[in-house]
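2024-03-11 09:14:02 INFO worker-7 job=invfold-0412 stage=load source=structure_tokens
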């Protein structure tokens, strides 16, 4: 799994488009080893300077033991380093609009490819979007017409609560230094 946000090339492109005030910032790419306790591999910058690790997107929500993921990242950081963690936020008032936001052409094509791979077509059932309150996740599942077979979940996007982020921070030896949200979105950035 490679997130484009972590690409050294994309970071350098972003850095080169920012004004002269950022001349002391040195971007570096990193890779996360998903099979080895979330060990980070990256080019070490000047060890006297703090690093800012960007962990944006929904990757954290894909794992059952999210605290272990954050502990693995934390074990690779030095004093003074900062983790910027971006996650989709759970707002119970906006569940219907969030679920509806996934029901679009691009997501439909993505899920159709998964359905075809599993030999599922419209004659057997259809894809339904819903919110799973037990897991705080937007999900899309292929539901069979016969109603006998269990639905097949094709997509899941976890939504985090502020309390969950605070608990994960505590369990993984981070302290939550701050939170920012772009008004009108369901995306929050947490500074750990």
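2024-03-11 09:14:09 INFO worker-7 stage=emit residues=192
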């Amino acid at each position: 799994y490679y997130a484009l946000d972590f690409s050294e090339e994309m970071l350098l492109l972003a850095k080169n488009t920012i004004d002269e005030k950022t001349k002391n910032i040195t971007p570096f790419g990193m890779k996360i080893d998903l099979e080895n306790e979330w060990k980070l591999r990256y080019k070490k910058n000047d060890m006297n300077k703090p690093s800012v690790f960007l962990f944006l997107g929904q990757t954290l929500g894909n794992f059952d033991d999210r605290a272990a993921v954050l502990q693995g990242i934390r074990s690779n950081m030095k004093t003074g380093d900062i983790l910027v963690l971006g996650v989709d936020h759970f707002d119970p008032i906006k569940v219907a609009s969030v679920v509806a936001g996934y029901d679009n052409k691009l997501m439909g094509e993505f899920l159709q490819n998964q359905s075809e791979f599993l030999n599922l077509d419209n004659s057997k059932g259809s894809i339904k979007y819903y919110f799973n309150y037990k897991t705080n996740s937007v999900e899309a599942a292929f539901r069979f017409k016969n109603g006998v077979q269990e639905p097949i979940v094709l997509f899941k996007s976890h939504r985090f609560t502020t309390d969950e982020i605070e608990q994960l921070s505590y369990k993984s030896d981070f302290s939550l230094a701050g939170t920012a949200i772009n008004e009108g979105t369901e995306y929050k950035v947490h500074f750990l």
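2024-03-11 09:14:09 INFO worker-7 stage=report msg="The helical segments are 8-17, 66-74, 95-102, 105-117, 162-171."
2024-03-11 09:14:10 INFO worker-7 job finished
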